[in-house]
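Technical appendix A lists one of the benchmark inputs used to test multi-chain prediction within the project. The record comprises two sequence entries:
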Amino acid sequence: MSNRDQILQTIKNNQPATASPLPDIDFPPDVSKPACDKFIEALAGIGGASHLVKDYEAINAIIKTAYPQAKRIVTTCAALPAGEHLSADADPHALDNVDLAVITAHFAVAENAALWVTEDIVQQRALPFITQQLAVIVKKEDILNNMHQAYQRIGAEDYGFGTFIAGPSKTADIEQSLVLGAHGPKTMCVFILSGK
Amino acid sequence: MSHSDKDHPKLAEQFNADEPRVDWHDETLWWVRVKRDKAARSIPEWEQLRETASRIKNNVLANLSEYLIQFEEQATRNGITVHWAKDGKEHNAIVLGLLQKHGIDRMVKSKSMLTEECHLNDYLQQHGIEVIDTDLGERIVQMRKEPPSHIVLPAIHLKKQDVSDTFHEHLQTEKGNNDPQFLTQAARIHLREKFLTRRAALTGVNFAVAETGEFVVCTNEGNADMGAHLADIHIASMGFEKIIPQRRHLSVFLRLLARSATGQPITTYSSHFKKPRKGAEMHIVLVDNGRSTQLGRKDFRNSLKCIRCGACFNTCPVYRRSGGHSYHTAIAGPIGSILAPNLDMRKYADLPFASTLCGSCSNVCPVKIDIHDQLYKWRQVLMKEGYGSTIKKMGMKGMTFTLSHPGFYQFAGKAGRWAMKAAPFIINNKLNPWYKQRDMPSPPKESFGEWYKKNRK
């Protein structure tokens, strides 16, 4: 018998025989506050900043003034004129000198300020991690309430890689002092597109 | 060190030599526990979430072999290579084999308690492979040649001046600069070079989904992602109990994990790895290493529901005042104390006794493991199997004799009260473990029995 079969056989012999049906996942969303307000509050709590904007032009204007030091700006958002557009075939190591990456997210989650991003929209898996600063664009109507709604939305979607990003990279490994910018972005800013 | 030098009370005594540091450790971990409470209370359905998570995990344990087969099938279809290891040795050999096949002798690694359990770093170093731990806390303890002392906060036993000294020695940072911001920046520069130059990355696994064949890795620093997305080969090491049935179940666990661990609403990154990057390889090693045995122990199998949040560490009065190294095992704290004896009863016979059985661990556990009950049950198993210490055995026998002979019981009580008054040195000495770090209570004038005789009417 192969190793695999041996392990599986032992597990099968030892796993409890009691039936344990899967529970329903039924958690009503907290609607005490508008999702957008909750999102902004949660984001501030984890060290992120947010801008409510009406269109891409407004985003462009903010990027120009808010990141004066940024030499290399990369964007995966086709609607943004500012920034270099990336090819999916580029060597991820060449992203090491990216100062600012501007990406879009499929949706955001109000309860924890997480944004769902997949490989197809960032083009390079490494991009949102290797960049020194990160900006993410999300539509206001795409702010969901909680994680259950998030996975309902993801459904059976096929992706190679997907990630929830919540705030700048951080660590508190030295005496529990919070430091923003561990290995990934030192800042994170979210543009909430309201369309009006 | 021989076994007797390495037990929990002795190691805890070493940790307790520096009282201000112990106080700091105690208060800091309690502060993390308070943050956890705040996060939990912000969610009205918290208790229902715990119950749901617990029931999903019960379902996992009852269908583990089926879920693992399903996971293997799906992951393989996604282009991930699945390996099986019956113990730590096999796991290590698989990892080494993959590196050698690619001619790689340097690797970055993000946090994986499983690789600590398997002693992977030592093994790879013996075979000429350099391993760099990339979680900041783990890198600090790696430089100091120490094991992590906490599964979520690996360097919680250290103060910033320790880190400063370590970095001064290894990274040539300015001597005496203890600023966490400065030290973190130094580590960022040091580790970024490693991420950019290493062709292999090993990560742990927080959850693996049977339905889709994907696995999720959670970090705050982004180190797992930096390693994996820049390497040619990504190896993920996973204890097989990390499997969950469906993708939507992640919603329950991701809501619980970080809130229980540090009080954050979610970790900064919750990365779902489903297929290898174009041109890169992805491997997953499913490890048993005693887990299937534990699954067969009816009283202890629930310990396999653990999602490694560390909440039981932070709340435990014994852990907070004895430090992670006193547990002399990869996973310390209350959960470690019920996992370790499964692996080696003789070596870890002391751990289920490193508890006050106050039950706080069970109360904070996000998947409702009956940790303190299991600690109590392990004590019984260990004494029955003959692994209890001689002193404990003699003490138990002495108590049994005293409590079953009323005459002797009354005599012993009197003798004790007399000694505490007339000759306190008989009791207040270092042979009496109750006298360590505390004063004995003042003796009562009479026993309850004597009082009752006088006062009954």
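The radius of gyration of chain A is 20 Å. Chain A touches chain B through 75 residues (CB under 8 Å). Comparable benchmark entries are summarised in Table A2.
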